[in-house]
């Protein structure tokens, strides 16, 4: 398996028809990798090569020294592996300036002292390459099968790293997100620092001694896997093995996360007590230390994720959804605890960064979850996230939980359905919710808006929509007509109707504020089924 599937110029010199061949220049480049063999008898080949080709030629088109020199320049520029030239028929010697530039760039030039059959040479080398490719595919399949079998019994990802090292015999470098680099085999500290520095530099450009495979979980980079080969360039076989191993690591790491998430179910009772305000700050800190968490701040907030048809989902889907939330929010600077309810998931977020951009980071995480492949596949599932008050003490988390539940309840009453809502952004809706518990708001709405509502119902009109837009645009007729996509004349007609129904003073300060408030109340009450009562009166 450790056989390196890379054919070098020096290997080809051991093949048939090369017994009498001489290396006349560029001997230091005999380690060049050969990926194909071409016979070339033209003057310009700059656009015909892709790199690492071995060129065979009689030199019939390069009999003049400057043409020969130009041709070798093109070969070097296009990173050809070397040049095999037949002497005697068209050329008798290699010009000195050609030898000089070949030595300068370590570009091998091999001379045949007599006529050789180029057809047999290409057939022999290409057959060798095809056989190597076949062995590579066979070994790759054997590696994949062995690795898949081991995955059933492997306990740690370190076992996988050891397995790829034993197969390739190159330096393995691995890093989990936000953790230190690991090396297989282990090397001393100074060598580690030097290699990390070299690795970071290789990321910025092409370096054939390094190969890199990101390991993604939940659509985000969770770990990094590198190969480092100081003696030979990374081969195609190495890259294929790297890709298979990265996939295996992703499966193993996901399995570990899944098992870990299952264990967290046992924490439900304690976390529920925390949400209900039953624990002291000392007890909370003790619990967090036992779990390996040491938050940098005492800032916390509770999120409630309402996902439609959550109860009907399989336990695997629910566990995966919790893992998705955890991964994304951790990426955005939060320690995460979760509690599963009947048709919702409750998340406790502990801020692990400065308080700056706290709200923006939560928004970013929610939108990332919403755009994830997992959520896109849930065609019928709809998600809403209610965020409670931000608290600055871990023992006051129950206040955030209570306001998160209030946010969800108010959202269910609102006409406009957003992906997420923050308790602190509800403003007047919080006031409406409290008033509605003690007063029949329907009567107040009818007192102010009944003429408009009845007109729209009778004539299928849009006066209420126009009134709302006109108020939101602060009485600007041009802005209102643009928002409603109607001409000014139509707007003037509707405003005249509103004035007839509500009175000419409907835009005066106190009455305008009351009408705006009642529009919000109407929006709040409408989804709950009370709109039908408006129609019945």
Automatic annotation (TrEMBL):
Matching InterPro entries: CdaR-like_regulators, PucR_C-HTH_dom, PucR_C-HTH_sf, PucR_dom
Signal peptide boundaries: none
Ranges where the Purine catabolism PurC-like domain occurs: 11-128
Pfam families per the UniProt record, alphabetical: HTH_30, PucR
Domain annotation PucR C-terminal helix-turn-helix: ranges: 463-519
Database matches in PANTHER family: CARBOHYDRATE DIACID REGULATOR (PTHR33744), DNA-BINDING TRANSCRIPTIONAL ACTIVATOR ADER (PTHR33744:SF1)
Name of the protein: PucR family transcriptional regulator
Naturally occurring in which organism (per UniProt): Bacillus salipaludis
């Amino acid at each position: 398996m450790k056989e390196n599937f890379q054919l070098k110029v020096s290997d080809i010199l051991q093949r048939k028809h090369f017994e009498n061949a001489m290396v006349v220049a560029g001997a230091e480049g005999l380690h060049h990798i050969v990926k194909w063999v071409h016979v070339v008898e033209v003057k310009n080949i700059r656009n015909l090569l892709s790199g690492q080709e071995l060129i065979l030629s009689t030199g019939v088109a390069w009999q003049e020294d400057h043409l020969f020199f130009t041709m070798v320049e093109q070969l070097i520029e296009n990173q050809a592996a070397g040049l095999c030239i037949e002497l005697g028929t068209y050329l008798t010697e290699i010009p000195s300036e050609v030898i000089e530039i070949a030595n300068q760039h370590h570009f091998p030039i091999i001379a045949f002292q007599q006529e050789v059959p180029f057809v047999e040479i290409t057939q022999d080398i290409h057959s060798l390459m095809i056989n190597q490719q076949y062995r590579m595919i066979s070994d790759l399949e054997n590696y994949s099968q062995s690795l898949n079998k081991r995955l059933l019994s492997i306990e740690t990802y370190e076992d996988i790293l050891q397995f790829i090292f034993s197969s390739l015999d190159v330096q393995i470098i691995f890093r989990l997100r936000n953790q230190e680099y690991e090396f297989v085999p282990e090397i001393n500290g100074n060598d580690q620092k030097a290699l990390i520095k070299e690795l970071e530099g290789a990321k910025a450009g092409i370096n054939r001694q390094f190969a890199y495979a990101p390991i993604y979980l939940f659509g985000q980079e969770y770990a990094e896997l590198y190969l480092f080969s100081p003696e030979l360039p990374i081969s195609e076989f190495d890259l294929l093995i790297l890709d298979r191993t990265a996939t295996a690591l992703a499966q193993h790491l996901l399995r570990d996360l899944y098992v870990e998430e299952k264990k967290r179910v046992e924490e439900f009772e304690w976390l529920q007590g925390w949400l209900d305000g039953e624990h002291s700050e000392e007890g909370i800190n003790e619990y967090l230390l036992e779990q390996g968490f040491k938050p940098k701040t005492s800032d916390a907030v509770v999120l409630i994720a309402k996902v439609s048809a959550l109860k009907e989902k399989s336990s695997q889907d629910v566990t995966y959804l919790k893992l998705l939330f955890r991964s994304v929010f951790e990426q955005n600077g939060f320690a995460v605890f979760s509690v599963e309810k009947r048709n919702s998931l409750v998340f406790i977020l502990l801020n692990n960064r400065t308080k700056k951009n706290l709200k923006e980071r939560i928004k970013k995480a929610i939108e990332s979850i919403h755009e994830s492949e997992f959520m896109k596949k849930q065609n019928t599932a709809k998600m809403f996230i209610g965020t409670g008050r931000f608290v600055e003490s871990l023992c006051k988390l129950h206040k955030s939980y209570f306001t998160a539940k209030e946010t969800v309840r108010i959202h269910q009453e609102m006409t406009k359905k957003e992906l997420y809502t923050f308790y602190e952004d509800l403003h007047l809706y919080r006031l409406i919710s409290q008033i509605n518990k003690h007063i029949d708001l329907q009567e107040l709405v009818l007192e102010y808006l009944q003429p408009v509502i009845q007109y729209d119902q009778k004539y299928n009109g849009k006066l209420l929509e126009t009134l709302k837009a006109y108020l939101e645009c602060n009485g600007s007729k041009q802005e209102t007509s643009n928002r409603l996509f109607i001409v000014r004349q139509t707007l003037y007609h509707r405003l005249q109707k509103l004035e007839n129904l509500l009175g000419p003073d409907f835009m005066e300060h106190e009455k305008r504020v009351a009408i705006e408030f009642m529009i919000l109340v109407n929006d709040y009450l409408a989804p709950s089924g009370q709109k039908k009562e408006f129609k019945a009166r």
